[in-house]
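Researcher: Structure prediction, please.
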Amino acid sequence: MSQQVFPQLGGNNTYEFLNLPSSARVSALGGNLISAKDNDLNVALSNPSLLSDSMNGNVALSFVNYFADIKYGNFAVAKHFKHGGNFCAGITYLNYGKLTRSDEAGTVSGTFTASETCLNLAYAHPILDSNLTLGINMKTVNSKLDIYNSLGTALDFGVTYVIPKKNITVAAVVKNVGLVWKTYVDGHKENLPFEVQLGASYKPRKLPVRVSLAYENLEQWDLVYHNPTDKVQTDPVTGEVVEPNKYKEFGDKLMRHIVVGTEFIITKNLFLRVGYNYQRKVELTNPAKDEFSGCSFGFGFRVYKFHFSYGRAVYNLAGPTNTFSMSFNVNSFYKK
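Model: Predicted structure follows.
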């Protein structure tokens, strides 16, 4: 006998791996970055409208040592066409490792594997002027969990606007609009992890720092999981029900949407990064031992024609994640 349960809001959809941070820089800045328009192809995987002419020939790779034996990575390459706009093709692959097969009584009968793959094809083109760009990313997703397979298509829509005089970039992304064409089990409908995001980045002209802010899950205000088994708080003296503080409750719900990241530009070839994800903090922290849940940090540096980045994000007592990224421009090797 089986029963469907929903222990947290994030478990209501399939293909949740599509929301994992795309690179070391994104991971170090809190796990969400959609508004940094600075020739970083890894960031363009999160927002297709960040693709630009300057990315022509860029190649980006990322590898993540996730929890347990789970590992995933990205590969992408960009191409600019003079009269056609900017394109990007890539692949995301996630491997869950070797898992133990057992029945409902716990009897082990062997092992099995599980993996998920996403093929990306993105396009972006400036409109009206070079400061406003629209983008779209088509994703073909295949998921294989033991003998079960699923196939779907998702679209991301992005818009980015740059204000050069103020060094401000604002962006919006609508993620994972699409359908699951083949479900794991016939007749069982599965939803994609649809989400709407807003973002902004600001770099003061005379300060070597860039601050980025992302507002996640615009489509849903209340992200709090309300446990039906939680007891109502009462006053120990009067026994009356204690009403929650409305301002504190509002602030908690608001902060669950916000991810903040700060990038320190030490030199043109060295960057330090820190980030904070409040939702990750409140959902995954252990009250008995905090261990900096929700915090992240990392760095990036350039050597010759290569740009390397590292990001470390603290989730909970299970440990942090470590992300490694590298990018380079193929055309740079052929220039005289």
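Model: The domain at 15-330 is CATH 2.40.160.40 (Porin).
Researcher: Thanks, that helps.
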